[in-house]
Amino acid sequence: MTEFNPYILYTNTVETIQPDEQEISRKIVDSMARVNQLMYEKYRHAIRDAHAKSHGILKGELQIYDNLPSHLAQGLFSSAKTYPIIVRFSTAQGSIVPDKMSAFRGMAIKIIGVEGTKLLPELSDALTQDFLLVNYPVIPTGTIKEYLKMQEGLESQANSGELFQKVAQKAAVGVQNVLAAVGLADSTNELSAPGPHILGDTYFSMAALRFGDYVAKINIQPLSENVKELAGKKIDHEIIDQDENAFLTKIIKDFFKNQTASYEMSAQLCTDLEIMPVEDGSVQWPEDKSPYQPVARITFRPQETFSPERRVYGDDVLSFNPFHCLPAHRPLGNIMRVRKLAYETSSRYRHHMNAQPRIEPKSIEELPD
Ligand code: HEM
């Protein structure tokens, strides 16, 4: 007898292609590419179109919980297994700006040793699977139409130096009051609020993805006490003043000199496509309708998080892409679909201009110490 559960089943009718989707998506990607070429000329080094600045490249492990109920034992999470992972912490701008400029933070995860054919044809044989998260539950520009408006505003300012930086920052983060609401910005002086400790944040997929038979958003939150206590905790002014450009790098580095930390990964399964839409990533799915349910634990042991070799490997060699996944975790909705071309375009340009190979690691040993 099959057990009743309230979760929406994944079928290809969960997604709806939007009017003019291809054209709008093309405009977004072309605009991002043009801005990225300007950034290349500025730095004479190619960087990511978004999340250009990394703050730590970490080695860790992802332990899928044993005995998950069948609605959670899906896709990658269908069997209790421990995988090595590489995690890249970043901030959202597509340029290299001082850490003091508040912005959303990214946590990109590459899981190593994942068997099975992957979604992107060129990476179908890779033994990796990526998840990309940001420290906010929704993407404020939750549809490609909204995203295009933001991107066009960003491009129109892209040549104007300091002003560009301000716009870039705003664009990357959505709206200033969103940041202020989560303590990442100060509404009176938006560019001087560096936000709370980066290791205390909770990170979200923001938009939906397939979760095997179901549809979900995922998140990762602090689990061990030493990172739980950093949630919302202001960074020491002394540390900020010592180096306004790189204090995020420093606090991660200092923390992992001698500490171990764990985080928990959870899935929020869709129970109602009306109130938990897939085609608008700006809508927060109510947790009273469907809570985040734990599926795995992430552990980081003491390590050097930002050696020169690691930075180059994480920034220039690796790429993280939400579509580099098992078909069971395919990203869903128009704001996700546009990412397919956006990440491929950005990554290809970066690897070409920096003359770097694009490598999917077969083993965690490939991550330099
Ligand atoms: C929906 C929620 C989104 C999340 C959670 C997210 C998260 C991230 C993260 C964590 C990174 C850094 C990856 C790394 O460390 O290599 C990243 C990079 C990037 N994001 Fe997003 N992002 C989102 C939406 C978008 C959208 C809508 C676009 C554009 C249409 C976009 C374009 C990019 C690009 C081009 C990169 C750089 C890719 C590369 O050069 O390797 N993202 N994103």
Question: How would you portray this structure in words?
Answer:
- It is a single chain.
- This protein has a single domain (21-268, 280-366), classed as Catalase HpII,  Chain A, domain 1, CATH 2.40.180.
- The chain has helices at 21-43, 144-156, 161-173, 176-181, 225-228, 237-242, 247-255, 308-317, 334-353, and strands at residues 53-64, 82-91, 105-112, 128-134, 203-204, 209-211, 214-222, 261-269, 293-300.
- The chain is globular.
- By secondary structure, the protein is α+β, with helices and mostly antiparallel strands.
- Strand 6 and strand 7 (214-222) form a beta hairpin.
- Strands 1, 2, 3, 4, 5, 6, 7, 8 and 9 form a nine-stranded antiparallel β-sheet that branches.
- The structure holds protoporphyrin IX containing FE (HEM).
- Protoporphyrin IX containing FE is lined by residues 28, 32, 48-51, 88, 90, 106, 108, 132-134, 139, 147, 205-207, 281, 319-320, 335, 338-339, 342-343, 346-347, 350.
- InterPro entries: Catalase_sf (IPR020835).
- This is Catalase family protein.
- It comes from Flavobacterium ginsengiterrae.
Q: What ligands does this structure carry?
A: protoporphyrin IX containing FE
CATH topology: Catalase HpII,  Chain A, domain 1
Count helical runs: 9
**Count of structural domains:** 1
**Which regions have little confidence, pLDDT < 50, spanning 5+ residues?**
171-192
Cα-atom radius of gyration: 19 Å
Shape: globular
Class derived from helix and strand content = alpha+beta
Question: Average pLDDT value?
Answer: 91
Q: How would you sum up the major sheet?
A: 9 strands, antiparallel
For the record, the CATH architecture stands as Beta Barrel
| Fraction of residues in β-strands | 15-25%
Q: What separation lies between the terminal Cα atoms?
A: 51 Å
CATH class: Mainly Beta
Protein name: Catalase family protein
